[in-house]
Every structure is written in C-alpha cells, then in structure tokens.
Specification:
- By secondary structure, this protein is an alpha+beta fold.
- The protein has helices spanning 14-60, 83-117; strands spanning 6-11, 68-72, 75-79, 124-131, 134-142.
- The chain has a three-stranded antiparallel β-sheet with strand order 1-4-5, with helices on one face. It has a two-stranded antiparallel ribbon with strand order 2-3.
Length: 144
C-alpha cells in the first residue's frame, strides 16, 4: 500500500530552493529528535517486556504469540499494541528519517555547488519534481 506522492514545485532562484531544502532538513531533524526521545523513553519498557516474554517462553516451553496484527488490504492494524511493538515502529521511522536527512543534506551540498556556478544567471525559474518530498529532477527554465 505504498504510494509515491509526486509534486512539482516552482522556485525563482537556487537560493529560494536552498531555503526550501534547509527548512526540510530542519523539520526532519526536529522530527528525528522527537522520535529518538520517545524511543529512548519506551526502549527500557520494551526490553523489560521482551525479557519477561523470553523467560516465560523458556519456562513454559512454548513460543508466546505477542502480536495481534490484522491486515486490512495492506494496512496493518495492531490490536493491544505493547511497548515492544511501539519501539519497533519508532525504530523503523527513525531509520527512514535518518535516510531522508542524509539524502537532503547531499542534495543541499550539490545544489549549493550548482548555484555557485550559475550565480550570474538571474532570469531562471526552477521546476523541481519531488517524490515523497525528495527532489528527483530539476528543470531549469527561462523566467517568463
């Protein structure tokens, strides 16, 4: 059920585009910081629960079923989510945000280099195609 969200953004200069990238980087850093804080809070509870489940499983000689997950046409619904479930989801999102931040920072450096080389050209419009808020194509157009 993963859909790619495509957009076309318009900027009047590389500087304007860089401001947009900087804002995305700061927003991603902020989200990452908040999720890391939440992960650290729940991690201890999740580890304690995992330890209890492992001990019970060994003592009883059976594997405990711990996730009540329902698949609704690609959407997963977890009933009675526990700290271990939340910790797992948080870690998945944290890793995704780290990857996004890395990509945005590489793009920022690349765009800064391009902007330096095209500084003298002032009557240019940038059309930027994005996929899931990540720029994937830049069209340099004459300003109208």
């Amino acid at each position: 059920m993963i859909n790619l969200a495509m957009e076309l953004l318009r900027f009047n200069s590389f500087e304007e585009f860089l401001r947009h990238l900087n804002a995305q980087i700061e927003q991603t850093r902020s989200q990452l910081s908040e999720l890391l804080r939440r992960y650290n809070e729940i991690k201890e509870r999740a580890e304690r629960l995992r330890s209890i489940e492992e001990r019970l499983s060994k003592a009883l000689g059976v594997k405990l079923e711990s996730v009540n997950e329902i698949d609704l046409k690609g959407l997963k619904l977890v009933v009675g989510a526990r700290p271990t479930d939340e910790a797992q989801v948080l870690m998945e999102v944290i890793q995704s945000l780290k990857n996004r931040l890395e990509v945005l920072m590489k793009l920022q450096k690349l765009i800064e280099d391009i902007a330096k080389n095209l500084r003298e050209i002032s009557d240019m419009t940038l059309l930027v195609e994005t996929v899931n808020d990540i720029p994937v194509k830049i069209l340099l157009c004459e300003a109208k």
